[in-house]
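Hello,

I think I submitted the pyridoxal-5'-phosphate job twice by accident. Can you confirm which output corresponds to this input? Input:
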Amino acid sequence: MNKEPLKYISTRGHQDKLDFKDVIFEGLAPDGGLYIPEKWPTLNDSILKTFPNKTYQEIAYDVISMFVDDSISNSDLRSIINSSYKNFRSQDITPVTKINEKEYLLELFHGPTYAFKDIAMQFISQLMRFYLLKTNKSINILAATSGDTGAAAIEGFKHIQSSKIFILHPYKKISEIQRKFMTTIDSENVFNIAIKGNFDECQIIIKKIFSDTKFKKSKNLTAVNSINWARIMCQIVYYFYAASRLDNIKNNILYSVPTGNFGDIFAGYIASKMGLKIGTLNIATNENDILTRTLTTGIHKTKDVIFTTSPSIDIQVSSNFERLLFDITKNPDFINSIMNDLSKNGEYTLPTEIISDISKSFSSYTVNQAEVESIIKKLFDKQKIIIDPHTAVGLASSRKCDDKHDLNVTLSTAHPVKFKDTISNIIDYNDKEIPKSVRSLFNKEEKLHIMENDIVMVQKFIEKNTI
Ligand SMILES: *Cc1c(COP(=O)(O)O)cnc(C)c1O
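Support: Only one job matched these inputs. Its output is below.
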């Protein structure tokens, strides 16, 4: 553990500094900012050299212990990590697989709900349970999901009796299997709310409810969205893991990440701040290309959401981008002023120095749905490899990057079965390949509440059903 525990500060300058435990339960800061460690801890070379011989769980311990304080002992942290990953279908947890000499996939979908959100959510639910048992408290969890977070959160918290969990998803805008993973869980503490709107609108409702500080305090509301620091923290681990399996000292590696809320790729940026050698982080976008446009024009301007075959990244408001801008500028006044512009005018402009700073670590290329189809088809025809549409966005985008890297690693964020309807329109996807645990979802009854895009209504419903 750290001798001097890290404190967490808000990207918008609120004076309170939080301890690890509080930051896990707090979600948004009172000023609307996101929490971020006051400074980045580093892992020195002598530790990094041990990683090729360590398991995923051992690497996770080395990384995560840099961020926690003595509210949790070393042995408790180890046992939380071990139980978080015991239900994964791969012993490696996040195996690195080869497409060809240059291209690899980092498979993040071997958890219970078949997408990468399980990696953080399994850990967070165990961690929160640990703290709740210690203090004899209960919580109400709220999150908006573009499809995968909700399932992972419900799976993590369904047996945690000291919690109730409310998940908002955009009605009819996620895949059938994504929905069934959430709505077929038969547990008293789970509430699924389908909002007649898009993901950004669900996210706005959540943010508004959290900004009602009285309601938040009295109900012990907790966010598990990708704004939750613990999510990002868990995702740092697999960048270290992948690098340790691919000799990142010899190889200059590009990581290509299908990006929505900027949580997954921001974790890679933190890994580099902690001492990991990373070539480039490529922000792969679909037609919802706000971040690609930001990097090329400096103008961060939201448009209407376009619904694509990769729904988990059909997002215009990329919350965690704020964390990057804060890390680069260290200037909360600047963050306040651009966030003000964004909510008033739907856009802000970044000075060229900031764009060139971002471009030192990041590239960004957008991919359209025809390109997604074509790469899914090519990979299947040539090599019988099946990738999901999000992974396809990542891979196709990496192929647009300049050729200065030794290896391109695409983060494979979902199992293809989660998007089997899309995939079977492109290739001959054999239903026999559907895993048993997914097949069983089809016979189960679904439970969900459909609601208008109306904050007052949603808040009332939540109030009525809280613990
Ligand atoms: C959530 C998600 C993403 C995007 O991750 P962010 O951290 O929001 O950028 C990409 N692919 C899949 C399958 C997801 O579920």
